[in-house]
Amino acid sequence: MASSIDLLRLLLVLLTLSSGTATYRHRTASHNYKDALTKSILFFEGQRSGKLPPNQRMTWRRNSGLSDGSAMKVDLVGGYYDAGDNVKFGFPMAFTTTMLSWSVLEFGGMMKSELGNAKNAIRWATDYLLKATAQPDTIYVQVGDANKDHACWERPEDMDTQRTVLKIDRNKPGTEVAAETAAALASASLVFRKTDPNYSKILLRRAIRVFAFADKYRGSYSDGLKSYVCPFYCSYSGYQDELLWGAAWLHKATRSPLYLNFIETNGRTLGVDENDNTFSWDNKHAGAKILLSKAFLLQKVQSLHDYKGHADNFICSLVPGTPISQSQYTPGGLLFKMDDSNMQYVTSTTFLLTTYAKFLTRSHTMVNCGGVIVTPKRLRAIAKQQVDYILGDNPMKMSFMVGYGPRFPQRIHHRGSSLPSISTHPAKINCGDGFNFMKSGSPDHNLLVGAVVGGPDEHDRYSDDRSDYFQAEPATYTNAPLVGTLAYLAHSFGQI
Fold this sequence. Notes:
By secondary structure, the protein is mainly alpha-helical. It has a single domain (25-492), classed as Glycosyltransferase (Alpha/alpha barrel), CATH 1.50.10. The chain is built from 19 helices and seven strands. A three-stranded antiparallel sheet has the order 1-2-3. Strands 4-5 form a two-stranded antiparallel ribbon. The protein has a two-stranded antiparallel ribbon with strand order 6-7. The termini are far apart. This is Endoglucanase. InterPro entries: 6-hairpin_glycosidase_sf, 6hp_glycosidase-like_sf, Glyco_hydro_9, Glyco_hydro_9_Asp/Glu_AS, Glyco_hydro_9_His_AS.
């Protein structure tokens, strides 16, 4: 028989769980999350490659890369530049697409007027990914030679470095890129299922074909294309995580027993038991665990029971004060994984915390971290604290999102932002001449509104030095998961 203490503890847990369904509407918002949401999506327009549409809002940008793919006699115009350079890397672009899609799938109903802009950001990527996967058993995974590109500092509009085209195929496989691309196409197919069913079907059919290619011809693209993709976007974690992640998204998009069987059969060999507590463009294990735990919690897919435990372990590793917490935080409270673009891990982790809190609330469940009960409310509080740090609640008293708040980075590691725009300086700025601007201490000529930079060091220090790409460079995969979390916060505080 349960003791009175046990009953009291159970009552407190149930009360806390029920309060976890409440939002922050009756509290004062720390920030204008709606404004931050708008800007976080606008950022993607500054990263566009190709022919820009008439409704382009980041007006200092112009058309670029209009002959991309011509070296291989294919059309690879479009897509995104991943960060501050002018290369189109397929691996991080696909992950960006998946995370934008997941943001919309979980929190799109809260985005209101920004939902259309978020979908436009996704479609700009998927239109390109459809081009890159048009040929069976072939994916074009990169446009541009990063080494040559990084030897120049020039606007995308002036780009005259070699637009080398790289591909994977049966002879040079790239399972991680292919499986991530399948995840991107499958997740996006769900985004457009109701509003554009024909496009959704095209995306899903392509996702199925691309995943089959990824699984059948296994191998790392870091091996076959090493001199081009390393050290920029080497796959350090291997391709097993992408196979699990891709299968999880295809299971969600198709509800086919084929993918569920794949997950049940291959989960352990694909590393689901590994104790990863990092989620990024390279390592998808944590994301797959969270996604599959939803199928168990909400769709009652009993064969995925273990994924709830795997997801709980990941979540517990993030929560300070629990017996199995593994994460490091700066003195100012920022989750800190590594010096190189740390903010990417903050935004991706924050999204998983917010999303898992949603699943737990809907299933009236909690997380037991070595005897410490962690509620959805606690996870949301941790996520909010991370977002608030990004937006200005930090020892530097500055926002790490360009254009948000009274003080934000003025010298980001970004070619287009640092150089005068075509409209103010029509003459070409040559490859080497641009370094005069890069090395200048002057503020950026153009605001890349919404860009979240790499962020401060482990001591909360940020130098605002354009040459420090660890701290000062933004990236699409940093912004993508933040979109979902900001939508949740803006809605929760009644701002949207």
